[in-house]
Amino acid sequence: MSFCKFFGGEVYKDHFKPGMYVCSQCNHPLFSSRSKFAHSSPWPAFTDTIREDSVTKMMESLTAFKVLCGKCGNGLGHEFVNDGPEEGVSRF
Prior knowledge:
Layout: E1 2-4, E2 20-23, E3 29-32, E4 36-37, E5 45-46, E6 55-61, E7 64-69, E8 75-80
Parallel strand pairs: 1-2
Antiparallel strand pairs: 2-3, 4-5, 6-7, 7-8
């Protein structure tokens, strides 16, 4: 099991072993390693959540949503619309 955290040095950015990424505060399932892909950002990048209720999203702009844990509200980062590995796919 992996945990999504950032303390100035993201240890899971280049981690591609099979598993599940969960909230660092409440262990709520967020992302599967199957949806993870290599990206130039300093954080791990995913194309999809495990379940629809894994995260809560709040629109920040036409191309970005603030993403929170769907259970405890812990801040997870952003979803960038149409910035995934393929056309029409978002990046978390």
